[in-house]
Amino acid sequence: MDLREFYLLAALIACFWLDPSIAQELIYPIREELQENVLIGNIPKDLNISHMNAGTGSSANLVYRLVSKAGDNPLLRVLSSTGEIFTTSNRIDRERLCPGPSFEESECSFEIEVVILPNDYFRLIKIKIVVKDTNDNAPMFPSPVINISIPENTLINSRFAIPSATDPDTGPNSVHKYELVNGQSAFGLDIVETPEGEKWPQLIVQQNLDREQKDTYVMKIKVEDGGTPQKSSTAILQVTVTDVNDNKPVFKESQMEVHIPENSPIGTSVVQLQATDADVGANAEIKYMFGTQVSPATKRLFALNGTTGLITVQRPLDREETAIHKLSVLASDGSSSPARATITINVTDVNDNPPNIDLRYIISPINGTVYLSEKDPINTKIALITVSDKDMDVNGKVICFIEKDVPFHLKAVYDNQYLLETSALLDYEGTKEYNFKIVASDSGKPSLNQTALVRVRLEDENDNPPIFSQPVIELAVMENNKRDMFLTMLSATDEDSGKNAEIVYQLGPNASFFDLDPKTGVLTATRVFDREEQERFLFTVTARDNGTPPLQSQAAVIVTILDENDNNPKFTHNHFQFFVSENLPKYSTVGVITVTDSDAGENAAVTLSILSDNENFILDPYSGVIKSNVSFDREQQSSYTFDVRAVDSGRPPCSSAAKVTINVIDVNDNIPIVISPPSNTSFKLVPLSSIPGSVVAEVFAVDGDTGMNAELKYTIVSGNNKGLFRIDPVTGNITLEEKPAISDMGLHRLVVNISDLGYPKSLHTLVLVFLYVNDTVGNATLIYELIRRTMETPLDRNIKEGSETYQSGDYLTIMIAIFAGAMVVIVVIFVTVMVRCRNASRFKAAQRKKQGAEWMSPNQENKQNKKKKRKKRKSPKSSLLNFVTIEENKADDPAHEPINGTVSLPAELEEQGIGRFDWNTAPTTTFKPSSPDLARHYKSASPQSAFHLKADTPVSVKKHHVIQELPLDNTFVGGCDTLSKRSSTSSDHFSASECSSQGGFKTKGPIHPTRQVKDHFYWSISTAYNCPVQQC
């Protein structure tokens, strides 16, 4: 079995013995000095590694990677795809790899490690390369000239040592033979082979020497090796014949072995040599010297005292460099045959060498730094670490560990080899770089350590989105800002690095008023804010990195617009108009002014005030409520106008003004006043020739109120039974309905009711219109007498009923009778009036006292209002007393009972002139509401003088006399409708009705001229008092 087959067998045994999942070993023998790109072996073929995945049947992409040390020049290279091993341009020199004596034939080898990746198929292959020697070195002598001294008395066949030649090659390629060239027959050459295999040449004296004949011999000695091709070299051998010294020194011990620690200091004695010489004198003086076989390196370490033979340490020893030193020492007395002693010095180990760490990277470093991705899995292989210690035994036992806690660990592969792997998932954001030491420590006393720095830098992956410093960013900005005003700088951070940490900012929707710099995050306002238009902006901003794929996050931005006092207070109306009823109590609410301010806070706190009002009204400065400081009387003042001012609390303050008009709404407190006819005793002539439709008389009245309260309606309520006449309800013109007939001749009394359209109750006045139907007015006195007589006829009865018709033929007789009767009546009336006037004052005082007790006002203000009304509407100062007797007969239909009454008109009535109407006090136009008016919701509670009709309980059948005051003019006044509750369409003013008031009258049924009645009712006609709204 040759050497190659032996190595292959050893490799196979190693493959079977080692765990193939962890490590395998190959041995390849090669010769030194091979050319570049020579195939050494095929790893997958030699280890029978399949490139097929046994589970899936698919091809596995295996990668073969040579584990090398940083800075090494590899002697071999591994093809990563096929696993083939080739030589490189670096020469493989066995003599450099394994220096040592050429006679010691030992194996020279070096090792490489190859890993198989990826991790799922990971294997560590240890490859041993055995380098075979090639005869590339020639044997060489120590010196090109060799000098030897031989005494002249040297015996034939005496031997003298010649310095040996050395050859770095080993085995057959080392020194094979010596040859003496031109020996001149005096000398021969012999080779002595030592037990260690070293060949020493010896010069043999073949004839007697005579120094006197020839003292110097010059020859050549040739040395050859056993290689193919054979190499050789020569040196000049010069032999000098010296004088004779026939005793040579003798060592006491020719073989010695000593032990010395490698840390022995300089000067330490190693061994004391002793040699003796039988000669005396100069020939007995022994000198010690190193033999020629002692290497220069050994001579540098040890010193030999030539006189004493003491060997000492000359330089520091290093067992790890050379553990055994063999010294050849010669003891010479000057003769040609010195004594020889061999000293073996064993350098014992001391723990003086720290462990050695050989760090070879699987992942190739860049400038000494290994780069890993933070997404690399656990157990990612980084490097193969080999530890060694030149010391022996315990001092050479090494343990290896990582100095600090890092996400890496060492996994033992062989006794002195470890894999550096990741032990946890890596996080670039947590730690970007790891600098840690791998410590190798031996077991000596004291222990020595060695460290190797490993620098691992992580490569960032985009696994972190940008994060805003605040999820909600709140800003406050004053309105009326400048465009492009800086608001804030948004800031987001990304724990990644590089492009993964480059952040781009972007605005979300609803942010048209803003601009955001995508790089700096500076937020600016692109428009001028107006808080009154929009007080708050809410939008989002996005921070996105430039990683792949990009990640992003959002934050909410809330911009609150702060108020500036840039808006004046604004009234809801430039001109407020409020409507209040007259007689409204003092300090009543008449309206509310509404004012707004678009600003906020103090800038919107508005205070109201009245400008130049003369203290008629009180304005609450905060609520805007206007209250009256005066009692209203529309007839005195129909409206009030003043200005109000609104001032806010801003700095500087803003203000505005508005106009306020308080319109006094009329209350129906004035009765119609008759202007025409001028008197209740006047009459109009209606010729028989008048045609239908012609105006025969005119009734005209005015009302001191306004609006509907002043609109009058004219109706004939009595005296037109034949329907001869018609009155226009609006104008009051009385026209003929048909042409008068002979039977229509005579005096006609029309009772015309003039009523206003007031709310809630209307006031009315009765006026008597006398129409005399005839061609001419023959005797006006007679007509006036007839008019006087009609006063005794009830108002609802025709003046011609129960009396004879006046014939035109008896006209003169009738007129005379009337005149005489009138005179008598005048005298009687005059006497009667004089008698009754005495008692009138007493009766009136009692009557007024009674009225005052019944008309108690609820408050002082109402009493004042009553006084005003009474002052405004006084009864005529000259009033006459008269008796009115009213009887009632029950009818079958109570709803249509006629009213009969007899009125006795005093004679003074004819002489009294009618009051004139003051046109200067014509009512003003009623304002129609056009603005908010709260006052119209406040109903007046002030009582006014009123006229009531109240029914009395029937008593025994007898006459009741009611004393009343009659006005001197032609107006009969009713506070309420004394004849009926009128509808807006009815012209019948004599339907049954009831009204209550002091001094009023009630009636049911017709009034008859007779004095006897079954049930007794009375009427009473009051003067100028009007009915309050809430009572009628």
Automatic annotation (TrEMBL):
Q: Where are the transmembrane segments?
A: 811-835
Query: According to the UniProt entry, where is the signal peptide?
Result: 1-23
Q: Domain Cadherin: where?
A: 26-141, 142-251, 252-357, 364-468, 469-571, 572-674, 686-783
The main place the protein resides is membrane
One example GO MF annotation: calcium ion binding
Record carries keyword Metal-binding: yes
A GO CC term attached to the entry: plasma membrane
Q: Which PROSITE patterns match?
A: CADHERIN_1, CADHERIN_2
Entry keyword set:
Calcium, Cell adhesion, Cell membrane, Glycoprotein, Membrane, Metal-binding, Repeat, Signal, Transmembrane, Transmembrane helix
The membrane-topology field of this record reads: Single-pass type I membrane protein
Write down the Gene3D superfamilies for this protein, in alphabetical order: Cadherins
Polar residues composition-biased segments: 983-1000
Its function, per the record, reads: Potential calcium-dependent cell-adhesion protein.
Locations listed in the record: Cell membrane
UniProt keyword Heme present = no
Domain of life the protein comes from: Eukaryota
Quote the protein name from its UniProt record.
Cadherin domain-containing protein
